[in-house]
Amino acid sequence: MIYIFFIASFNALFFLVLLLQKKPKLLYDYILIFWLLYLGVATAIYAFATNYLLEAPFVSSGIIALFLLHGPFLYLYVSALTSDNKKFRIKNTLHFVPFLAFIFYLLVASQFPAYAEGIRIDHVNHGVHEPPFLFVIFLMLTALSGPLYFLLAHREYRKIKGSILEFSSRDINLDWLGKLITIFGIVWTLLIIIAVIHHVFHFFSMVFCTDGLFLSLSVFIILIGYYGLKQQEVFISFPVEEPEEPVDVNKIKYASSRLDDTGLQKCFNRIQRYMVAQKPYLDPDLTLPKLAKDLNVPAHHLSQVINEMHGKNFFDFINQFRVDEVKRKIRDSKFKKYSLLGIALESGFNSKSAFNRVFKNLNGTTPSEFRDALPPS
């Protein structure tokens, strides 16, 4: 088991070195750098200290305190990944106050031997030295921290997933993040429950609980490092009406006044003519603000027309034009020598996976099935 922890620690530091070479680095990259550093160091400390946990209560308590960092790092990473904030906000440091308070408490308590006798997470002296009330509070806070932050991170993920579809026509795939949050949220919560059962009913052993938590962390290190290293920028800010202010994607939809029925129809007709004549969907990086600027209409009016008149979000609206363009080119003899991927790239898609997924979702068949079903020309 110890070797697994050392491997995980090495992986965390290895991904950290790779991430340091990534250019350009955004806010979530810097958060991930500090997160991987914490994960690598914490896992290595645990691997070295495993054999001394029962003999050194303060070491084991300090390791348990490290669990107060995992949730905040996850939440801050997801928040940074799913927003266009460029700078770390000072108020976000408040998420680390419980960890610092726990460590400070342990350092102060260690100066009073009689009081410190009760500070241990095993039950060797249970009944002789009852754990101090404040220590129990910190243990409860640690147990609740992980599940609470997993829920907060999942809420951020769900909130922004819909905003992406309203904002960008690119196939920005954050499914890995949602699955990672859900799976590890469940696993982590179950392990915390086991640790609580151990502490209350004396079932299992302390090492069994901590091994399980650090084993899940080890797997998490590998996955978050791999996907985090690959993650590209989610949002790109485009000026719409006030160039000096970045676009707030969460306020695009119906930001101010709404169009009445007559205004909706006029804007609808204008958009349709522009889409057919200029084919802006051929730009794989087309966004709602960018299209609104080209049309010289407010972004919230464009969003309202797409939602109410077309019954779609921006992502599906643009990609329907791309799918129709692909179908037209497949039928066109001029593109007979083109591969399906070549036609897709010529039609505004930016990857094979995005093309296949969107085409099937919007057309009901795969691109190759559609092509094979055409009558021979």
From TrEMBL:
The keyword Membrane belongs to this UniProt entry's keyword annotation: yes
Transmembrane spans: 6-21, 28-49, 61-81, 93-112, 132-153, 174-197, 203-229
Pfam families per the UniProt record, alphabetical: HTH_18 (PF12833)
Alphabetical UniProt keywords: DNA-binding, Membrane, Transcription, Transcription regulation, Transmembrane, Transmembrane helix
Domain of life from the UniProt record: Bacteria
Boundaries of every HTH araC/xylS-type domain copy: 269-373
Stored PANTHER family: ARAC-FAMILY TRANSCRIPTIONAL REGULATOR
Name recorded for this polypeptide: Helix-turn-helix domain-containing protein
Phylogenetic classification of the source organism: Bacteria, Pseudomonadati, Bacteroidota, Flavobacteriia, Flavobacteriales
